[in-house]
Predict the structure.
Amino acid sequence: MESFKRLSLDELCFSICESKRTLIIFHIRSDADAVGSAFALRDIFRVLGIPAYCACADELPERLQFLTDGVQGSVLLEEDMRLDCERIISVDSANPVQLGALFNRLHKDIDLMIDHHSSGTPYADNYIDPNASSTGEIIYRVANRLIELGALDSIPPRVISCVFAAVSSDTGGFRFSNATPDTYRLAAELIELGADHAEISRQLFDCKSYTQIQVEGEGARRLKTIADGRVAWISFPYSLQQELGAQSEHLGTLIDIARSLEGVEIALAIRENADRATYRVSMRSATDFDVSYVCARFGGGGHKSASGCTVTASNIQEAEQKVLAEIVKRFDK
Ligand SMILES: [Mn+2]
């Protein structure tokens, strides 16, 4: 088994300061923490005078493009680009599989991973802090340490807004249990530095496409419960997704509908993939129940209260049964 080095904050900062053309990569099904962290780090490199480019195996969802405006149009990696970089850093990506097609193209060359997930499979030297609310929080820590070390004069404006979006997104708008007093202090600091919190929050939480609202309506109709309403789930067939003209980015809030049902302790969203053989499962826990353990049984992972995995099944009912059985098995009755 290959072993990777765990870096201290200073080692991470010194490594970042090395003048090497850098590729910053992040996970598919990108969220605002992945995109915000990547583009915040890109901007730190810009100020340090180091060329950097952000890449993902998927194009960005439309609703997150406000984070990248004017910096980089696409995040897809051109064929020849890999030859052009001297260092590859991944952000917010705990497992190789989350990097999608990029991992196979690049994995031997990934130099560093920066992340905050507790259950993951390190695939490079790393700085991982499971106590951080988000990878964005770590990037902000890096920026502040670089100021102390004299490498940066101040926090660049784009870093301020990208980090705010990253932290806000991963804490559900500062409402999840990973939003600690430190997270709120961090938010206050970012607002003092000029983060447009109202606009970022509107973009992240209050702005939905027509398609997404249609998906949520259909999702709400498909909500089911077991175990006296303590477990709730929504399963979403691919045929329905096609009928609504929805992309996978429109299905991300289904889990929130299941989670918001009164009395629910464990919520799931099960989406049938286009191959109709694999099912993308998101899980949330409102109690001590560790959903990352259940997801790990299917090769996935994440956090104790928010995790995901992909399940293979011959139809959506079988996928539901497989996952629900794993939950019920360790449910204290
Ligand atoms: Mn994250």
